[in-house]
Amino acid sequence: MHNRRSVKRVLMTTDTVGGVWTYVVDLVKEYQKKGIEVALATMGPLPAKHQLQQIAGITNVELFESSYKLEWMDDPWKDVDEASEWLLELEIITHPDIVHLNGYVYGELPWHAPVLVTAHSCVCSWFGQVMGVEIPKQYTKYKRMVKNGLMGADRIVVPSLYMKRLLNCYYEKNWNASVIYNGRDPLQFVPQKKEPYIFTAGRLWDKAKNTKQLCEIAPDLKWPVIAAGENQKIKLHNLKHLGVISQKEIAGWMGRASVFVSTSLYEPFGYCVLEAALCGCPLVLSEIDSFKEIWGDAAIYVNPNDKEVLKEILNDLIDSEKLREEYSIRAHEKSLQFTSYIMSCQYLNLYDEMTGSATSCLEDSNYQNNRNGIEKICE
Prior knowledge:
Blueprint (H helix, E strand, L loop, with lengths): L8 E7 L3 H15 L3 E7 L5 H8 L4 E4 L12 H18 L3 E4 L13 E4 L4 H9 L8 H13 L2 E4 L2 H10 L6 E3 L15 E7 L10 H6 L7 E4 L11 E2 L5 H10 E6 L8 H8 L4 E4 L2 H7 L4 E3 L4 H13 L1 H15 L4 H15 L9 H15 L1
Helix pairs in contact: 1-13, 9-12
């Protein structure tokens, strides 16, 4: 392991909604191994009890909580102004070498440290990809503020080439963004003895997840469909809904699942798919650009709106143990390219470039030793 020369402390923002929190927790755990301290500023809903438990044992994190509205929420701008002052004060208090923003609008603030913005998702691309429309008028200021934040950042990171194309499209500029794929800790998602059910997970209420398709075909499938995640708006007919469960419980259900399916219309990355692949689940995924980019021939793809073909593919997998074994192996092997170790090293290399010290912490030998150790544990 290299001794880190330039970056010793990072000021990082996060919200507590969905995948951004997962991403941040994985990053700071890896940063702990490298002796890097993180001042973590939360906005939006305050961290839930289970989220606080996730970071309780991470010794390199200093938590700064707030409940300022997130930039995509209704009429957030008074909160954004107040949060801007708060964040600039935090920079003075914490003296970071890098400011890592997991949101857009604060990129244009007068920071002293170099600023990195990670573009996880956005309202404009959600409306365009899910609803097929321009953003409603109430988001006009949001779009302008997001573009200003991107222009103010020293570096931009996206979790896929797909998300980079969306930024270029919806914010009318050829952004110089670096692709760093998200990663998870493989030791938290381990294949187990498979049982006869199909699994899906995520924000089930979100139209982008397109969960209604699974609900409609579930009665015609030979195995039950089990779903985990928050649901606020749709009726989950024909699915067994587990509700919001812990990461450990998710890993257990995924580890035992014989098939994982995602019918999403829009996914800049797709954390649940990665977790399922690490668990050795054969993947049946929407034929959308991000999934094809990330998973290549390690998944079976289907038009997310073609219920009949989706039903046929799932029943074919149910009938063929050989086919399930083949795609289980493909998914698991591919998943080892997307670990939190690799993700953290790529971010730290980028931090070093931003602070003028460019040496790599991701050496081939370190990467291969890490991969070999994971494979041995997962056998």
